[in-house]
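Journal club prep — side note

Before the paper discussion, L.F. wants everyone to see what a predicted structure for a comparable chain looks like in token form. Sequence:
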Amino acid sequence: MTSTEFRLQLAQKSLLGLSIGDAFGQQFFIPVDELNYYLQNQIAPPTPWYFTDDTIMAMGIYDCLQDFGYIHQDSLAKVFAKNYMKDNSRGYGGTAHAILRNIYQGMPWKQASSEAFDGMGSMGNGGAMRAALIGAYFYDDLEKVIEQARLSSEVTHAHQEAQIGTIAVALAAAIAYQNTIREKKLSSKEFLSAIIELLPESETCSYLKRGLNVSKSSNIQSVVSILGDSSDMTAQHTVPFCLWVASHHLYHFENAIWHTVNGLGDRDTTCAIVGSIVALSAPEETIPLLWKQATESIYNSDFLIIREE
């Protein structure tokens, strides 16, 4: 197997974990009584499970890596817009609708991205939700991870917080995979610290630092109140919680996703982020077969052709 084939294999592994987390989390936007029943009894919701824009945009990242071996921003913008137009009912946020429609109609992506929110750019979690594939692909070069993650984010998210959140998730994915081949595995605190030391000062980084002192046994709603409530769908209130959960469940996919969905908020995206990271470090048998079978397939999708090298 060539280096490129191996890197794409890791990116594909991350994409699969992302799609399962995304589709699973999406099932929990249901009435409170049903929600509590499934969560309290850890019962998986009825199938089938369909993924959202989180997976579709991550497919755009995979497509770009498959074609170029790096983030080619113009091509990435085109594939994002093309896939959006194939089916724009997959849970895209209001800002994403505007940006992707404008790109499809010919507006340069840099203009479309930078005009969002009166010129401030989006600080949403959309860049972060698709970033783990970059960490997987460039797992052995963290400088490259940072560079490529920022490039991927800029296409739709001009705000610094969104870009830092994207970088943080990509770094988490790379470090998660690196951790599988370490003789001495990283603790939760060591895992988070390895990410923090590579991030610029920011609100995202500040929230992430809080996670260093939050124990695994903490009440999940207390954790959300400390690390950020993803309900507002911003990067700084989404990424720190996701990375904290991942840091405590690097070796068990199912446990990681259940812990994540209990945090509620933007649960398809939080589960997508955690799934995309933990899939790189957890044994495959920790992903329930039922979950794989329930989730819409990434291998038979109108949004991506995974080529056999």
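L.F.'s comment for the group: Residues 225 and 241 are 10 Å apart (CA to CA). Keep this in mind when we get to the figures.
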